[in-house]
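Below is one record:
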Amino acid sequence: MDTVDLLLHPVRLRVVHALSGGRTLTTTQLCARMPDVPKATLYRHVGLLAAGGVLEVDGEQRVRGAVERRYRLSRERPVIDADAAAAMTLDEHRRGFGAAMAALLAEFEAYLDRDGADPVADSVSYRQFTLWLDEEELAGMIKDMTAALMSRARNQPAPGRTPHLLGTILFPTDGPHSQQ
């Protein structure tokens, strides 16, 4: 399975999100985080991610006679980089966007279903803005946002820190050079 096919699936994206930030989890812990995903389905997707080099085994322990593995994201995991994105077809981009939205929706539903979910206290946001930008302004905004996000993306789990999922979506809403 190529990298695009491997990563552009809502359940596999959720597994990658769950293991981000240096976390290690067992399949049992992943199942608890994703109760809406049947166990057999989750095990199959974890197996595909491990076989594809996205996940690696961090350790094993015996639990009631079976071997339970702890998984983490591989340090050498395949990614959809700029070259891979440029080689994707429009249908692959459509499928990738759909998978990302399905994963985002499932994660938000799981958040809302947790005991004590409080969107206001948790600073939940789902706003959209229309920005009129020329190519230079767009490039500058992307550079600034990337710098701000990457400085925090390196944070490791620590007391007082909770993981937050941030999804960015950016695309033109009109054709090139449209004016109103």
